[in-house]
């Protein structure tokens, strides 16, 4: 069985222009993954499926992951002489790392019985560029799972044959699995609301009796 | 056609098959939608009906929107979500261990295998070891779960075909004996909540092994009786042979797993491939079908039960004494290192996987269930196209779905 680095270099040789990046995994499972740029994803997927040494003919698991915008604070301390006195000056720089959505594919080979090879596709951002190409034309097993990722994360899969909501109802607007999803304030309250439900209920039902 | 051949395909063969993707796959306008002819009924009109969400054959709340041309199915779209409670979101909002009882509710027939799959994924994520005795208990409970799942599935399938009552009651009688064992061990018949990360929750009660042994010893007699009634039954053969044929290439490409995949002739059993737990120590065979129709799916399950008994007998005999949980495993304040893991097992319905991402806190950052029931429904339309509407019920029954897992 080839190592992930060997697979990566073979993909780069077979699919010109494919930008791959190895993502390390710190857990004892040691299942490292590879990010693929969305433009070449379908070509890479076809290579992985059809290559005689890999034959990753079976996509086991397809799922989305939401990575929010993060702000990385870095503090640098410098010594400066101000008015003849040496002072520590702390400068904090904030770098904003934009968030993105990610689709993770776990690939196995039913023919050669090895795996998993983990592919990751990343979207440009979490709002207007939340698109990746669909791999359903390569592996049909991704059909319902990509629909589910679209339904719960709002990632649009270009080239999916039937991209509709699958678990939520069609009229539903938001994407519930996103980390910043806020529950809509539209459900029926229990007869004796308490805690945070009481706070929400107060907006709807005045709790104090009016004279 | 009488084609009960107990040894056909029963071999640990390498899978030497050419896997061809479905025609047209890979093209941009690849569509799985069928072409509607409209010339099979008297006046050429199509009838659209909704089977479900409250339909006895769907075993829960599941809907199939079917377009019929006379009695032939020309289009079928499954509709899910009636039981959706966003299991994954709830699990991301709570600790790792607190999700364990919730996994029972996925496939409520097989709570012990759900527990195992989740425990396995967390053990991979955190690098926990499982003591010998706990591994044996896990194998024993998982194979007992497989026995009761497959008997009930056979019973339900026959019920769907119109064999009202008898096969299902026979199956439930046997299931009850296994559920008694679960109750003695875990305190619950169905919602067992038994496995823990790095082992099991409690040790076997006194006399449990003897009781389990007598259930296992009596099971072949039940299977023989069940099969004498059913396997060569003329009506069963007429209703199932040649119905809902799943081609091998499509099965692989559409990620079908479990008995459905093996009925299509693909030798892929995760117990053999991943050798998780201690399955390496047991000698058992992987039954394969030759035709990929509903009858093969029924037969593969019956043969799998006989193979499960071959695992159970030595497991019950050789189980060692010792601890049942890794002493390093923490129940409270459990924080795995930052990283991710995908763990999977061969559940009775197919590959059940859990994908976890840890951000170093007490809650998983991402918790994903790979549900075999949902993914096995991918090809439901392909199996049903061109068949009679009455066969849709039989085909759905042979897929073996549980809505708790499909909708999550």
Outline of the structure:
The complex is a heterodimer of chains A (about 210) and B (about 400). In chain A, about 20% of the residues lie in helices and about 30% in strands.
Protein architecture, described:
The complex is a heterodimer of chains A (211) and B (408). Chain A is of the alpha/beta class. Chain A has helices at 4-14, 41-50, 142-153, 195-204, and strands spanning 20-23, 33-36, 58-67, 70-82, 85-97, 100-108, 117-122, 131-133, 156-158. In chain A, the strands form three sheets. Chain A has a five-stranded mixed beta sheet with strand order 1-2-7-6-3, covered by helices on one side. With 408 residues, chain B is α+β, with helices and mostly antiparallel strands. Chain B has helices at residues 87-92, 100-103, 111-126, 132-161, 166-186, 208-230, 234-240, 248-253, 259-263, 270-273, 294-318, 372-376, 380-384, 389-399, 403-407, and strands spanning 46-51, 63-69, 72-79, 195-196, 199-200, 339-347, 350-358, 364-370. Classes of the chains: A alpha/beta (211), B alpha+beta (408). The interface between A and B is large, with 46 and 57 residues.
- Give the total of beta strands of chain A: 9
Q: Please give the most extensive interface between any two protein chains, plus how many residues each contributes.
A: A-B, 46 and 57 residues
Element string of chain B (H = helix, E = strand): EEEHHHHHEEHHHHHHEEEHHHH
Question: Mean pLDDT across all residues of chain B, rounded?
Answer: 85
Q: What percent strand of chain A?
A: 25-35%
Rg of chain A, Cα atoms, Å: 24 Å
Spans of chain A of 5+ residues with little confidence (pLDDT < 50)? none
The residue fraction in helices of chain A comes out at 10-25%
Number of helices of chain B: 15
Please list the strands of the largest sheet of chain B in the order they lie side by side: 1-2-3
By DSSP (H or I, 4+ residues per run), the number of helices of chain A equals 4
Number of extended strands of chain B: 8
Q: Report the principal-axis shape of chain B.
A: globular
From the N-terminal CA to the C-terminal CA of chain A, the straight-line distance is: 79 Å
Structural class of chain B: alpha+beta
- Given as residue ranges, the uncertain stretches of chain B (5+ residues, pLDDT < 50) are 10-19
- Quaternary state of this entry equals heterodimer
Give the DSSP E fraction of chain B (strand runs of 2 or more residues).
Answer: 5-15%
Largest sheet entry of chain B: 3 strands, antiparallel
